[in-house]
Amino acid sequence: MESHDGRADDPDEGGMNTAVSALDADLLAADARATPASMNAFLAQVERRAFRMAELNLGHREDALDAVQDAMLRLVKHYSDKPAQEWTPLFWGILRRRIVDLQRRRKVRSIMVGWLGGRDDDGEDLPAWEPADTGPGPLERLNDAQSYADMAAAVKLLPQRQREAFMLRVLEGLDVAETAQAMGCSEGSVKTHLSRALQRLRDQLEEWR
Amino acid sequence: MNAPDNHFERHARELYREASHHLDPAVVARLRTARREALANRKDTSLAHRTLQLLLPAGAFAAVAVVALFMSSPVQRPTTVAPNGVAPMVDVDGELPPDAAAADPTLYQNLDFYGWLAKNGDSEASR
After folding, report:
1. Which end of chain A has less neighbouring CB within 10 Å, N or C?
2. How confident is the model over A85-96, as pLDDT tens digits?
């Protein structure tokens, strides 16, 4: 069982977070998260990364698009009146919950399919949950396609909360407080999950070092 | 934390950003459509919200006005009907005299006669 409380007593955790903070300062200086001028600008800024994050979590393009679309709708509907500075953690939090919802639905459906012997109501075989994208995908156009595929495979193996902490904190560059808000947990818990995620990823992606 | 760890995280973030920039055009188009739909939904919602904001006070004012109208209107006394179906006699003392402009002018010319007739007629009838 994964711990969800806010213990942050790993010996190397402080150093890891210092490194992430240094990375934030470095990368975010170039990609400054200036306050977006409008909701349209904010969504245009995050929509592609949101799709990548949903795709990494769900492993399914259509589900990822659904999750991003739903997150956009909910953010606009419920939080347009909030200050623009709050949109970032709100959006990633909404997207995270939507991803979890889709994963749960998928799990329930797979159980139902198991009970029904792999056939739906019409007696037809249900499609596999992770159909391969056979067309020329974006990965083929990337110079670092293999590296990204390796990272994606390693990230998918992480436990849910560690994966969320890694993606929001390292990939998306949220600070600890924003990550905690998006994940719905304490800042200490974020640090713990991130520390464990980084440790696992370093072990799996040894060749990156 | 040493430099290689920093490199690890930097590399992961750069790959993620790079992959996000190089999306399938079909996916990009669908994301753009989703964004426009979300923003259009906000406009519809805000229009409905504004309409509701206007209609609510107007409706409340109308309700208050109707209640005030009912409360300020004079109370109509129910006309009681006698058990035998005959309407009770109305107290004529409380009635106003006929309007002088609308009344027949000969009534006022022969007022003395009508006064005498009323006086003697009542006394003849009482005999």
Report:
1. N
2. 889 999 999 999
> Chain B: nearest CA to A71, how far in angstroms?
9
N-to-C CA span, chain A: 30
What's the rounded Cα separation, in Å, for the pair A46 and A168? 12
- The CATH class given to the A13-131+138-208 domain equals mainly alpha
Q: For A18-47, what is each residue's pLDDT tens digit?
A: 555 555 444 444 444 667 788 999 999 999
Q: Is A39 on the interface with B (CB under 8 A)?
A: yes
d(CA B19, nearest CA chain A) in Å: 7
Collapsing DSSP to helix, strand or coil, A197 comes out as helix
Identify the CA nearest to A88 among candidates A51, A50, A55: A50
Identify from A87, A133, A148, A191 which residue to disrupt to test chain B contact, counting B C-beta atoms within 10 A and taking the largest count.
A148
User: Tell me, what's the ipTM?
Assistant: 0.71
Domain boundaries, chain A: 13-131+138-208
Residue A37 in contact with residue A23, Cβ under 8 Å? no
Q: How confident is the model at residue B90 (pLDDT cuts 50, 70, 90)?
A: low
pLDDT at position A88: 92
SS3 A125: strand
- B22: nearest CB among A40, A142, A198: A142
**Integer Cα distance of A59 and A136 in angstroms:** 16
Q: Which residue has the tokens 């659904």?
A: A66
- State pLDDT tens for residues A107-122: 888 787 777 765 544 4
Answer whether residue A174 shows pLDDT above 60.
Answer: yes
| Nearest CA distance, A112 vs chain B (angstrom) | 30
The DSSP line for chain B is --HHHHHHHHHHHHHHHHHHHS--HHHHHHHHHHHHHHHHHHHHHHHHHHHHHHHHHHHHHHHHHHHHHHHHSPPPPPPP--TTSPPPPP-GGGSPPPPTTTS-HHHHHTHHHHHHHHHHHHHHHH-
Q: What are the boundaries of each domain within chain B?
A: 3-72
Say which DSSP state A36 is in: P
